Amino acid sequence: MRHAVVVGIDGSAQSAAAARWAAEEAGRTGRGLRMVHVADADGGAPARTGRQAARLPESVAAIRDRIAAARPELEIACERMAGSPAYVLAAAGERDGLLVLGSRGRGGVAGLLAGSVGLRTAAHARCPVVLVRAGYDGAAGAGGEIVVGVQGDRPCDAVLGFAFDQAARVGAVLRAVEARTLSAGPYVTQAPLDQQAIRESLVADRLVHLQDALSRWREKFPDVPARAEVASGGATEALLEASRGASLVVLGRRAPGHPMAAPRLGAVARDVLHHSRCPVAVVPHE
């Protein structure tokens, strides 16, 4: 199946929620839905992969059947593959350009909202990875914002482009959030009121840079209402607060600068994946 949204399923409630999100995305974009169940859950080094003739587990087949019954218009394929889940799923998503996973699969540690397979896959995949928690009700974008975390004077085009595209598809407001620890500087020795005025000036300056970064994307997506926000404090706290009313949080993941460097997620991305109130998309970029 070509031009499909790929979703990893293992029979868990989290993967069922991911399948619902993926089915909605497939319907919005006119693509098929490709469900992938990886038989080997050792999470080790890359293994030879391939389709297996063995039947799907009943819990996996049940998810497939529920999605097929709810979305009869979709072309759906479901396959069982062998290998290390993180590598198999990352490769499957790379072929089609988008991968959706549950935020914790079977065997996850209690309290760890993003399982090790999801974290490894999001760190290795060369395509955007969306992680969805159990409880997702199949109403992507309904009444919620698309929140995108930005950093630096030149936010990455791949991250902003994905966020604007999602907002356009679901008719959502895009909310770009940059978090800064805004110190007034060691040169400030006057009253606290003066320090507050300097912090406000720094926020205004950062807001101008952020508005400039969004301007080109506003031109490409004129129907997407876009808001810029500079939050004083930590990025994790700002993004988690924003996730309370959002339908999706979009984060960037920097690709390794050296071909031998190990892919990894930053601390902010890990924390947001663990605790976000809504699905989270991790978008790799150079």
TrEMBL record:
<dbReference type="Pfam" id="PF00582">
    <property type="entry name" value="Usp"/>
</dbReference>
<dbReference type="InterPro" id="IPR014729">
    <property type="entry name" value="Rossmann-like_a/b/a_fold"/>
</dbReference>
<dbReference type="InterPro" id="IPR006016">
    <property type="entry name" value="UspA"/>
</dbReference>
<protein>
    <submittedName>
        <fullName>Universal stress protein</fullName>
    </submittedName>
</protein>
<dbReference type="InterPro" id="IPR006015">
    <property type="entry name" value="Universal_stress_UspA"/>
</dbReference>
<feature type="domain" description="UspA">
    <location>
        <begin position="1"/>
        <end position="133"/>
    </location>
</feature>
<comment type="similarity">
    <text>Belongs to the universal stress protein A family.</text>
</comment>
<feature type="domain" description="UspA">
    <location>
        <begin position="146"/>
        <end position="284"/>
    </location>
</feature>
